[in-house]
Amino acid sequence: xxxxxxxxxLAIPAYDLDATVAFYVGRLGCKLARRYxxxxxxxxxxxxVVCHLAEPPxxxxxxxxxxxxxxxRHFGMTFRRPEDFDALVRLVEIRKLPVFRPVxxxxxxxxxxxxxxxxxxxxxxxxxxxxxxxxxxxx
Length: 139
Known about the structure:
Layout: E1 9-14, H1 17-27, E2 31-35, E3 39-44, E4 47-53, E5 75-79, H2 82-95, E6 99-106, E7 114-120, E8 126-132
Parallel strand pairs: 1-4, 5-8
Antiparallel strand pairs: 2-3, 3-4, 6-7, 7-8
Protein name: Glyoxalase/bleomycin resistance protein/dioxygenase
Organism: Pseudofrankia inefficax (strain DSM 45817 / CECT 9037 / DDB 130130 / EuI1c)
Keywords: Dioxygenase, Oxidoreductase
């Protein structure tokens, strides 16, 4: 069973480690735990995200790079307290972080009602942040 000191671990691609650190640490406020030539490890809201250096997808020269899609792959944080979600929204606005989908209310009037915001990192990884009105809906 997970203990309070345990951390969830997620590995994602990064195409430029300097841009990755600038986004996650300098703008989003995550803590840089470690940096190597081929990856950075971050404290992402209490869990561990490792950004591994990877080659960007190779598109044909005459075909624009495809827009990222939220489904089926994204990651993020579900906040238990509404003020924590609001603080993140303010941070995004102040620091002008790249928004993939602005704040929206989903499943209004249902038990699963929640606000969501989706950001886009420099490698086109999508980060979703949520707050459910009913905290029992977090899982």
